[in-house]
Design a protein that fits this description.
The chain has helices spanning 7-24, 38-41, 67-73, 78-85, 97-107, 111-122; strands spanning 28-31, 44-54, 57-65, 90-92, 130-132. The protein has 134 residues and is α+β, with helices and mostly antiparallel strands. It has one domain. Strands 1-2-3-4-5 form a 5-stranded mixed beta sheet. Strand 2 and strand 3 form a beta hairpin. The longest helix is centred in the N-terminal third of the chain and has 18 residues, at 7-24.
Length: 134
């Protein structure tokens, strides 16, 4: 038997799946605390969930990095920053490869536009120019 699903129906189903999955995980965000520079830390935001806690550490799903982060680093690390400054602000999904792998297994690449729209709808204060995937 063959079923035909409209693009909009598929998009909506994936969007709902993402929303249910990440809401169930109590997704929240916090500023990074890896650097001694407090201003630099405020330019990186980690989105974490607590459904799959490993060693009492919340699971990081993705990281939001502002353009200002790269502008600050430009003073000390221009070679590293040069390529990144043009695509920021960005949302990096590499920290949570397992979640991306799950989404790829379920939906192939069809989940990416739905996720990008979901993120923009859910977190309008975090303007994203580029999404990076593993």
């Amino acid at each position: 038997m063959k079923y035909i699903i409209e693009d909009k129906q598929l998009f909506d189903a994936i969007y709902k799946f993402i929303d249910d999955d990440l809401v169930e995980d109590n997704l929240s965000w916090n500023y990074e605390e890896e650097n001694d520079d407090e201003e630099l830390n405020k330019q990186i935001v980690s989105f974490v969930g607590n459904k799959y806690i490993n060693d009492e550490i919340d699971e990081r799903y993705f990281t939001y990095i502002t353009k200002k982060y790269y502008e600050i680093l430009m003073k000390t690390e221009p070679e590293f920053v040069r390529d990144w400054i043009n695509i920021a602000p960005l949302l990096d999904l590499n920290p949570c490869r397992w979640w991306c792998d799950k989404m790829n297994t379920l939906f192939s690449d069809y989940w990416k536009p739905a996720f990008e729209q979901w993120f923009r709808d859910r977190y309008p204060n975090f303007k994203v120019k580029t999404f990076t995937y593993p």
